Amino acid sequence: MISKKAIAICAIVGVSVSGIVMAAPANAEPVSNSYAIVGSDTLQDVVNAAVNGTTVSGSNVRSLANGTAVGSFDATGGVLIQTKPAGARFGRPNGSGDGVKALSRSLDGAAYTSATPGSPAAIITGQVDIARSSSGPGSSANTNGLLAYVPFGRDALTYAHSGTNTGFDNLDLATLTGIFNCSITAVNGVSVTAVIPQAGSGTRESWLSKLSLTSAYSTANPSCVKVGQEHDTIALADGSPFPDNAITAMSAAQWVAQNTGAGINRIGTATNRVGMLNPAKVGTPIAGTNAVTGAGAAMTPNSAFYSNATWGRDTYLVVEYARIEAGNPKFDATLANLLDPSKASSLTNTGTFASTTGAAKKKFGFLAPSSTTPLRSNLR
């Protein structure tokens, strides 16, 4: 096993560690000698595992860039990150939207300011190569756009709650909408608190879209809505404890990964969240169809829930389109291979053999995406 000191030395002197496989989850953030990935919290753990190396599928799996390590940077942590040797230090991109904005500023050279509090404006030209995104391009979609949203895996959007009342387990779309627009303040006679993920989160954007609410709505309802860090039921964004009888958007894939041990566990329990009497639970907005099946290390995605047209969602890795377009003067064969689903160790692979990235991704709760065709988008 490599020590943290050894990893740091490799990052400083540029020594390749491509022949060494590390177990997931791994959180070290070395300066990247190849490509730098930022953005979505939803995809953070699984992408970290793929690029750092994992044996979660029962075989050694690692996604390399022509034999060179790729750098994936967490959505949360220290305020500033440095992604490339001698590159600028800039505010950590937190969430899908923030990650795509960082990629856009890396391409157009305009100043970037992260959504992470305390981040300064910085010029980050050439510092970001890939953005993790739990949502598609939305209103930025453009068939001639400069960005390509390359399908990564199928996730589903559900909710987690800290309520002990079983009435919290099955809440339909109308009820969830009422809770988040503050017209419903109690479930089965128990007061309920709405917790929305932080600004810049793709999960936040997807959740509000499904509930037909605007991204700025929480500012207008401060007494009803609190802001959390996506997929975290231990604490809110300001560090205060996640409330009892609260409901928040939750990636089904993240819930699987946090329960199986593949990802970082941020599930609130009596031992890690002061005052919580029972562990946070996952609910379902579809009557009779749970988001996941099994429990603990045996938990897996429920394909029936993931395939639902309302709650299922594809996730993406976003890059400059020209760099993966064969024949384009900017074409980068190494980057294109890293995102080619036909390659067994590529980030977008959906294979089932233990030695493929696809098998490792399933352990993190991701199934094959509904399409492998990239979507085009304008810069954000």
TrEMBL record:
Signal peptide range in chain numbering:
1-23
User: Is Signal set as a keyword in this record?
Assistant: yes
Report keywords, A-Z. Answer: Signal
* UniProt xrefs under SUPFAM superfamilies: Periplasmic binding protein-like II (SSF53850)
Report the Gene3D superfamilies cross-referenced here: Periplasmic binding protein-like II
Q: Under which name does UniProt file this protein?
A: PBP domain-containing protein
Q: Which organism is it from?
A: Cryobacterium sinapicolor
